[in-house]
């Protein structure tokens, strides 16, 4: 839901680390589903266009104008189906809202209700009201005001109250089928293996067959479901996640290559080296800092 041209990943990471807050307009072109995973912040998005969101075990097909809210605890991915998705985006961390009593009231709000659908259809009157709140936030963000963070927290609270009104009106949407439940279970199981924190507990699930056996389904059923939902093969998703973890271990630990290979389930270091070259284009040693 965040425009990569407006909020690139590194920009988001920097903003969240330095201040814990970012707001802006969105203008996202048609794009395939993003990586399914958790983010380290809350997000409130006013989305205009056609967007498919896999949020936990919920498939949300948003066609029109919606308010979408996510939390750091639920993994999700986003596919922009229309030629462009416009609107607004606001990102913030729990630390950013901690100075207020906002977090106490939000314990019962949509931010922490993981069973609730996070998307709300809004009408023209609501669109105008919510758009005005976002525009005010953008104006305040550009201002040199000592206490503007307090103002931003107030606007976040107002946006959340809008969702509470919508929730009480039972304006939620929800659509889940077997493919999405299977994919959700697979992705959760995949993510549960990481991060690798001990050489004594190596990766145990490496192949689509391993995951299918663990889930108690035929591997063909798993592959069909994952392909339908993500557009990617089961093997590719597994390889991508292992490669991501491998890069982190190579860059951030003092384990040698053979130890990392073992931790990731490779019988021999040369198998690991071949895997990294195939999936990242680099040999393991190239990720080591000199």
List keywords for this structure.
290 residues; alpha+beta; Jelly Rolls; 5-stranded antiparallel sheet; 11 helices; 46% helix; globular; disordered N terminus
Note the topology.
Blueprint (H helix, E strand, L loop, with lengths): L8 H10 L2 E11 L10 E14 L2 E13 L5 E17 L1 H4 L4 H5 L12 E3 L2 H19 L5 H21 L9 H15 L15 H8 L3 H12 L3 H19 L4 H7 L5 H12 L10
Antiparallel strand pairs: 1-4, 2-3, 2-4, 3-5
Helix pairs in contact: 4-5, 6-8, 7-8, 9-11, 10-11
Task: Give a brief rundown of this model.
Keywords: DNA-binding, Transcription, Transcription regulation. By secondary structure, the chain is α+β, with helices and mostly antiparallel strands.
What's the CATH C level of the largest domain? Mainly Beta
Overall shape: globular
Q: Give the class from helix and strand content and strand pairing.
A: alpha+beta
The CATH topology assignment of the largest domain is Jelly Rolls
CATH superfamily of the largest domain: Regulatory protein AraC
CATH architectural type of the largest domain: Sandwich
The pLDDT mean sits at 84
- Write out the strand line-up for the largest beta sheet, numbering strands in chain order: 1-4-2-3-5
| Residue runs with pLDDT of under 50 for 5 or more positions | 1-8, 170-176
Domain unit count:
2
Sheet-strand content, in percent, reads: 15-25%
Radius of gyration: 21 Å
SSE series:
HEEEEHHEHHHHHHHH
* Helix fraction by DSSP (H/I, runs of at least 4): 40-55%
Can you give a write-up of this model?
It holds the Pfam family HTH_18. This is HTH araC/xylS-type domain-containing protein. It comes from Avrilella dinanensis. A hairpin with a 2-residue loop joins strand 2 and strand 3 (58-70). The model is unreliable at 1-8 and 170-176 (pLDDT under 50). The protein is α+β, with helices and mostly antiparallel strands and 290 residues long. Helix 4 (124-142) packs antiparallel against helix 5 (148-168) and helix 6 (178-192) crosses helix 8. It starts with 8 loop residues before the first helix and ends in a 10-residue tail after the last helix. The protein has two domains: 10-168, Regulatory protein AraC (Jelly Rolls); 178-286, Orthogonal Bundle (Arc Repressor Mutant, subunit A), CATH 1.10.10.60. It is built from eleven helices and five strands, in the order H-E-E-E-E-H-H-E-H-H-H-H-H-H-H-H.
């Amino acid at each position: 839901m965040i425009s990569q041209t407006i909020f690139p990943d590194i920009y988001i990471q920097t903003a969240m680390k330095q201040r814990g807050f970012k707001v802006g307009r969105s203008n996202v072109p048609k794009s395939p589903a993003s990586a399914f995973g958790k983010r380290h912040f809350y997000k409130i998005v006013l989305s205009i266009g056609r967007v498919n969101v896999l949020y936990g075990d919920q498939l949300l097909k948003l066609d029109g104008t919606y308010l979408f809210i996510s939390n750091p605890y639920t993994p999700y991915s986003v596919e922009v189906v229309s030629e462009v998705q416009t609107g607004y985006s606001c990102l913030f961390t729990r630390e950013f809202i901690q100075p207020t009593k906002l977090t106490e009231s939000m314990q019962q709000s949509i931010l922490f209700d993981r069973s609730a659908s996070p998307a709300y259809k809004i009408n023209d009157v609501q669109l105008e009201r919510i758009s005005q709140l976002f525009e005010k936030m953008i104006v305040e963000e550009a201002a040199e005001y000592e206490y503007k963070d307090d103002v931003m927290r107030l606007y976040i609270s107002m946006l959340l109250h809008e969702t509470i009104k919508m929730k009480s009106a039972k304006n939620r949407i929800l659509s889940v089928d077997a493919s999405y439940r299977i994919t959700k279970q697979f992705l959760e199981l995949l993510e549960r293996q990481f991060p690798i924190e001990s050489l004594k507990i190596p990766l145990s699930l490496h192949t689509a067959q391993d995951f299918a056996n663990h889930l108690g389904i035929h591997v063909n059923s798993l592959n069909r479901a994952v392909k339908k939902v993500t557009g990617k093969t089961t093997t590719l998703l597994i390889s991508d996640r292992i490669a991501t973890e491998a890069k982190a271990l190579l860059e951030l630990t003092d384990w040698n290559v053979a130890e990392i290979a073992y931790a990731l389930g490779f019988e021999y270091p040369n198998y690991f080296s071949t895997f990294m070259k195939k999936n990242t284009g680099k040999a393991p040693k190239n990720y080591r800092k000199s």
